[in-house]
Amino acid sequence: xxxxxxxxxxxxxxxxxxxxxxxxxxxxxxxxxxxxxxxxxxxxxxxxxxxxxxxxxxxxxxxxxxxxxxxxxxxxxxxxxxxxxxxxxxxxxxxxxxxxxxxxxxxxxxxxxxxxxxxxxxxxxxxxxxxxxxxxxxxxxxxxxxxxxxxxxxxxxxxxxxxxxxxxxxxxxxxxxxxxxxxxxxxxxxxxxxxxxxxxxxxxxxxxxxxxxxxxxxxxxxxxxxxxxxxxxxxxxxxxxxxxxxxxxxxxxxxxxxxxxxxxxxxxxxxxxxxxxxxxxxxxxxxxxxxxxxxxxxxxxxxxxxxxxxxxxxxxxxxxxxxxxxxxxxxxxxxxxxxxxxxxxxxxxxxxxxxxxxxxxxxxxxxxxxxxxxxxxxxxxxxxxxxxxxxxxxxxxxxxxxxxxxxxxxxxxxxxxxxxxxxxxxxxxxxxxxxxxxxxxxxxx
Length: 445
Ligand code: 6PG
What we know:
The chain is of the alpha/beta class. The chain is 56% helix and 8% strand. α8 runs antiparallel to α9 (204-214), α10 (237-248) crosses α11 and α11 packs antiparallel against α18. The N and C termini lie far apart (82 Å). The model has no long low-confidence stretch (mean pLDDT 97). The protein binds 6-phosphogluconic acid (6PG). 6-phosphogluconic acid binds at residues 77, 103-105, 161, 164, 234-238, 339-340.
């Protein structure tokens, strides 16, 4: 119902689009000056082009026609450092800039995505009604909220994608355990995932996973999944998420493992050669299939909580480091609908931050912490089985190790400190005295 003017650099696309809009109040523009002319002042313009250079090129082209007070929004998966740079440059010209994280893919674009806007608060307030109108709704609540200053919106979207990578990797590992470990067929896999989607694991990714296993190839009639090459591509937002987590010294090992496994998957020819020379254990499952499936469901649920815990801990640290002022409850609220990582669990996550806005880690929420801990014994059995079978499950493993590490009052990092001091005189701190110390380790006793 909103009146909008639209422009695409390819005129034929705009004409094709206009044939589909029917009676909607959409006005086409066939040049950028024409578009700018059509929009009411102070203008609000949403740019949806591929991240990177295309955003800079569009901004450069638009700039001469804009007036101070106009507002630009970048709805792509831009890197947050680029967003900071662009908002500074545009602010010097009196223009406001909103880095608008958008999730939901083609379906979201059409029926309502999850929106993660960041930038000047005043600019957000101006476009809030527009964004609320186009956002996905959960129980009537729009999946949009102000994420914070500067590049907060694009940062939140980047971490969304990091979590997305983690969750996809975990689902892929459960698939591997059920396919190579238990010998389940595509139909059986579809049943399992559809069943899991009925309970605590209900999520968009679970739903589409069940559907994927049901799909047959039009030509051969075989399950389509078996015809798809086992090499994952990536545009890079998951990698950026890991990368910045490392810069901030926030551990996000499940997300890191997901990035690494996409990398390993892409070396397909090399893996095939290695499979002929590097022998692994003989696979044989002797046990109760149902028991294993229940354990696997629990391991997946606990790992899912851990993946969100890592991403949200990163957001919390980033918010302080980059002065975003992110409200994690608002993040959970926005992620509940329209986006790729939407899941039933996000209601509990939202409740956790509602109860305690400064919660350092989801694992410290009494409810979610219990949910994880009560599943660890089944989770350990799944990981042990994966090790015995030689099936790589780094996401499930490192999520468990994260819990074990996080709940360790003592970690062996004292040895690392001693080694650093030994070879590089980097000094160390002591438990029994204040200050920094160095030992001449080579000195004879
Ligand atoms: C979303 C998706 C979206 C896109 C990713 C895919 O939230 O709608 O995350 O942003 O599909 O860029 O990422 P990769 O190509 O890196 O897997």
